[in-house]
Amino acid sequence: MKFAITSKGDNKSNALMHKMRTYLIDFDLTYDEEQPDIVVSIGGDGTLLYAFHRYTRRLDKTAFVGIHTGHLGFYADWVPEEIEKLVIAIAKTPFQVSEYPLLEVIIRYQHGGRETRYLALNESTVKAVDGTLVMDVEIRGQHFERFRGDGLCVSTPSGSTAYNKALGGAILHPSLSAIQIAEMASINNKVFRTVGSPLVLPAHHTCMLKPVNGQDFQITIDHLNLLHKDVKSIQYRVADEKIRFARFRPFPFWKRVHDSFVAD
Ligand code: NAP
């Protein structure tokens, strides 16, 4: 089996990366950064986001596992003290795979046919470059609302515990094939109206954002933040692709939610 390791880059994560690499090679696994069957991410959830984006072109062939060197994570659920156990599990056991849904983002531009397609593991957000974001929101081809406010956040179920949660969105179990739209400080008064609640869309529904004022937007895809000019529309839906996590033991999602947000 071929493996790769990504590290957050701090001393603790790097030391662990070197140790893990040596152990896995001792167990006859091959280090291959280009075509790994398994990617071990060492750091935090943010590190796994970077690893995901590095290997988005081979999601059907690569599984991910995360070790956290800081606080408990949603994607990084092994602790450094367990690395010998994890190495043996990777080397000896045919692992189970848990698949989580991803968000597909298609950005189309004025003047021409080109479009860009991204996959997000957590979410995509849209903000105006300057001032209030004004966007027409279409759901399943029908006008839904004209949004005015700071921005919109469209998240995956596993991303629902990240930015989406800070916006008052619901936490969705990653077995649900859905996306969630959450508002950032919408303007609501006698003139302007938005629904005001987060919306959860099933896999066969598409959400389309169409600019009303201005065509330049600050659009994030997980940790990537880019300025997009001359935008005609931004389309969101559940992607056909999924991320595959290598599972060597049960670690129920609601326990991770409890341990991260509720437990002392
Ligand atoms: P960052 O600003 O360095 O870290 C953001 C925090 O979000 C980190 O504590 C990270 O955990 C945590 N996180 C990432 N994915 C998560 C998940 N699925 N569930 C719960 N927590 C999660 O940025 P970054 O490391 O490059 O990560 C980018 C992410 O930051 C974005 O995808 C977005 O979700 C999040 N973000 C959150 C807010 C907010 O909550 N107000 C604002 C902007 C961005 P680790 O420490 O384990 O890496």
UniProtKB/TrEMBL annotation:
Its EC number is 2.7.1.23. One of its GO terms (molecular function) is NAD binding. It comes from Cytobacillus depressus. It is found in: Cytoplasm. Its main location: cytoplasm. GO terms for cellular component: cytoplasm. It holds the Pfam family NAD_kinase. It catalyses: NAD(+) + ATP = ADP + NADP(+) + H(+). Keywords: ATP-binding, Cytoplasm, Kinase, NAD, NADP, Nucleotide-binding, Transferase. InterPro entries: ATP-NAD_kinase_N, ATP-NAD_kinase_PpnK-typ_C, NAD/diacylglycerol_kinase_sf, NADK. It comes from the Bacteria. GO terms for biological process: NAD+ metabolic process; NADP+ biosynthetic process. Involved in the regulation of the intracellular balance of NAD and NADP, and is a key enzyme in the biosynthesis of NADP. Catalyzes specifically the phosphorylation on 2'-hydroxyl of the adenosine moiety of NAD to yield NADP. This is NAD kinase. Its cofactor is a divalent metal cation. The active site is at D45. The keyword Cytoplasm applies. NAD(+) binds at D45, G46, N122, E123, R148, D150, A185. Belongs to the NAD kinase family.
